[in-house]
Amino acid sequence: MSENRLPHILVVEDEAIVAMQIKRTLQKLGYTTCSAASGEDAIRLAKTEKPDLALMDIMLAGEMDGIRAAAFLSRHHGTPIVYLTANADESTINRAKLTEPYGYILKPFQEARLRSTIDVALHRHAIANRLKEGSATFLPAFEGTEDAVFTSDVNGLLAYMNLAWETLTNSKLDQARGTELPKLFRELTEGQQAILGEAIAQAIKTGSEVPLASHGIQVSAAGAPALGAHAVVPIGPSKESVTGVVLIFRGTTAPGERTSVASVPASPEAQQRIVSDRPQEGRRISDGLSGLPSRAEAEKALETVFNQATHRFAVALVLDRFDLIRHRFGMKAAEEVLLFYSIHLAQSMGPTDLLFQWSGPAFLMLLDRPAATNEVRREISSWAGVRLEKMIEAASHSAMLVVSGKWRLFEALETARPQALIEEIDGFAGVAKRAY
């Protein structure tokens, strides 16, 4: 969607009066609209109208219901979907989930709810597109690291390089974008480039991290310490849906002697690129490693929850064994694990959920769910209770760590006031951190 035009919304609703009401409301809110009364009409209209989002009635009459139409629009046109629903049964909702919608709106809808759901969906879709292009939501962490970091699309073509590499080598992203990642490093032998290419292909195919340190592949610039190929890490919503990779080169000097590549002064143009590439809404950039909004932003959001009765549930999550990892493997390894865990949480969010870094290894997620408490608890357990694996390198050896976390669910609106909830979250986070 061009930043110079209003978002264009396709309304797919077979009840003419309801469709007219929705269109009028959307136009009042500042969107442009087009409409279809059937799934087949929606597919034909999408070819010419190229909507930025489809507002889709799940229970469309006719041979093609809303779910089938949504699946086609998403797969063939990349159109983000927000479902309209009144009383859909559980099997229908489960079918709808498979199309990975960006939100749901219950009929009869409220104007404020309609606007917030659409705005959040458009924003998250824009971030997803940036992730596919390699620009990623994780730019703040990439720009602040000592490592040289590159991302590719699903074909292994360069989409992004961080400031450390640009300033070290005087490379320009605009000139290099689209190059096969291994071919960026002309000083490497054909065999070394082949190793990088195979690792990238493996990460894309399997959705798993591929360590590289054992191969001894190094790159350097005049007058600067060598950087060693460290790992290829897949990016994407799941192992089955990899959208690209991150290739990391790390300093090869001893930890105490390490020179920060990122300390090379940045040009004003490169600094401006960092600022302009950062997402400006929803997840405001904090000073933390994860790039998630800070505790201050979380406390403001909790005030909003109480004032507007949104996001009924809050879940506090604490990364296990953070201090133990830091003491045994060093701060760099602990930060890697923390970032890895924060990315896992971000990929587990619903379309209108909010995620914050509360303090240190503690996070807060505000959940926008109409479901009963037990259903929400089961959902959280499916992703917060999993044990992940993360390969790290410390000094002269590698280690495979099991990454897990503790969590506690709060019914935010059941608490008397925001400060009481904040105290409960602090209490849980403190106990969870002291467990190790």
Mean pLDDT: 77
User: How would you name the oligomeric state of the polypeptide chains in this document?
Assistant: single chain
- What is the strand content? 15-25%
Number of helices: 15
Structural class: alpha+beta
Unreliable sequence segments = 131-137, 252-288
Largest sheet, in brief, is:
6 strands, antiparallel
Total strands:
17
| N- and C-termini, Cα separation | 48 Å
Radius of gyration: 23 Å
Helix content: 40-55%
Shape: globular
Give a written overview of the molecule.
The chain has helices spanning 16-28, 39-49, 66-77, 90-97, 111-133, 139-144, 163-169, 173-176, 190-206, 268-277, 295-308, 322-329, 331-347, 373-384, 418-434; strands at residues 8-12, 32-36, 53-57, 81-85, 103-106, 148-153, 158-161, 210-211, 218-219, 227-235, 244-251, 313-319, 354-359, 362-367, 388-394, 397-403, 405-411. By secondary structure, the chain is α+β, with helices and mostly antiparallel strands. The strands form four sheets. Strands 6, 7, 8, 9, 10 and 11 form a six-stranded antiparallel β-sheet that branches. A five-stranded parallel β-sheet has the order 2-1-3-4-5, sandwiched between helices. The chain has a four-stranded antiparallel β-sheet with strand order 13-14-12-17, sandwiched between helices. α2 (39-49) runs parallel beside α3 (66-77) and α12 packs antiparallel against α13 (331-347). The termini are far apart. The model is unreliable at 131-137 and 252-288 (pLDDT under 50).
In short:
The protein has 436 residues and is an alpha+beta fold. It has 15 helices and 17 strands.
